[in-house]
Design brief:
Helix 1 packs antiparallel against helix 2, helix 6 packs across helix 8 and helix 7 crosses helix 8. The longest helix has 28 residues. The chain is an alpha/beta fold. It is built from 14 helices and five strands. Helices cover 60% and strands 7% of the residues. Strand 4 and strand 5 form a beta hairpin.
């Protein structure tokens, strides 16, 4: 959903800037907005740059009806899904996770975004993005939606608990990166030629993009080594290998308790799954576990981050025994 959200955000911006160029852009823009919300409810933030663009350019407000019509089928489909599955219009599969949003997360998460942004988009792009309002006047109608997109996603996810837990949680603000890069590039493209108009400085500005590119590649390589990104594929294999091991050592009726690896277990195996984050200790200990243990074995497949949360003590108490460790996945079995 992260990559799809990024693609949808880019399409929203592209179609937004083409509203006055062809008749179908408005309809397609509405469809993209609907698809974005279907992909992830928080993508309603994509309405912010659209609203900013329309408000700052009233002549485009006449295209609003096209955007609405283009989004109606997706909105109707979303409402139908919510009513069918949850009996409420505004309830989605994400449930109520409002407890994960707190004001005390805001400034630490902003710092986390900034420090990782220095590496992921390079200091040049980040500095250019932060300084871009200085030179935004001439192209403000084109650039303001980019600013609105970046600011809305950054501010929203700065209150979210998981946003600063590990660097790859920056995936939540993935739509911000194209806006940051474009605004940063715009800033430097306007600033450098305006500083001096000498032959020497013209040579500097001519070679600046190459220097920036080399710096970006170097920073990216160092960051990738530090974060072990080059061996990420090996770690990802743990999802499949854990599912294969359970499939070879468990019956199809045996239960797997998991969260992080639930997608791979569901994809590779027919076994029933219990998501531990929805469990309550009393319900597990006195109703679920005794009933399951009568007829089947119960496994738990957990990542280190899940073990750090003391899931056995807080969600599913019992006599769990570690029986296998596959890369980052620890597999336990509940003993009788």
């Amino acid at each position: 959903s992260d990559t799809l959200t990024l693609v949808i955000a880019c399409l929203v911006l592209l179609l937004l800037f083409r509203l006055d160029r062809d008749a179908w852009s408005g309809y397609l823009l509405g469809a993209c907005l609907a698809l974005g919300v279907l992909t992830r409810p928080a993508n309603i933030l994509l309405f912010v740059p659209v609203g900013v663009y329309l408000v700052t350019q009233p002549r485009h407000l006449r295209e609003s009806w096209k955007i609405i019509l283009g989004g109606l089928p997706g909105a109707a489909f979303q409402i139908w899904i919510n009513l069918t599955l949850y009996d409420k219009v505004f309830t989605t599969s994400y449930g109520d996770f409002s407890s994960l949003f707190r004001t005390e997360y805001f400034f630490p998460t902003l710092l986390f975004f900034a420090l990782n942004g220095l590496i992921l988009v390079t200091p040049m792009a980040l500095v250019g993005f932060l300084a871009s309002p200085v030179l935004i006047r001439s192209d403000r109608f084109r650039l303001m939606p980019l600013v609105a997109l970046a600011v809305s996603f950054i501010v929203f996810y700065a209150f979210y608990f998981h946003s600063s837990t590990v660097w790859w949680m920056l995936r939540f603000i993935l739509p911000v990166f194209p806006a940051v890069i474009i605004l940063g590039a715009h800033f430097w493209s306007r600033l450098l030629p305006s500083i001096h108009n000498t032959v020497t400085w013209n040579r500097v500005t001519r070679w600046a993009p190459i220097a920036f590119s080399i710096a970006a590649l170097s920073i990216g390589h160092l960051f990738s080594k530090e974060k072990d990104i080059y061996v990420t594929y090996t770690w990802e294999e743990g999802y499949r290998e854990a599912a294969e091991w359970i499939g070879e050592n468990a019956d199809e009726t045996d239960v797997v308790v998991c969260m992080q690896v639930s997608g791979s277990i569901h994809y590779y195996l027919p076994n029933p799954i219990i998501r531990w984050e929805y469990l309550k200790p009393d319900l597990w200990e006195y109703e679920i576990a005794p009933g399951l243990l009568k007829n089947r074995r119960v496994f738990a497949a957990l990542y280190p981050s899940e073990l750090d949360r003391e899931v056995f003590e807080t969600k599913m108490p019992g006599d769990w025994k570690l029986i296998k460790k596959i890369k980052h996945v620890s597999i336990y079995e509940l003993q009788n």
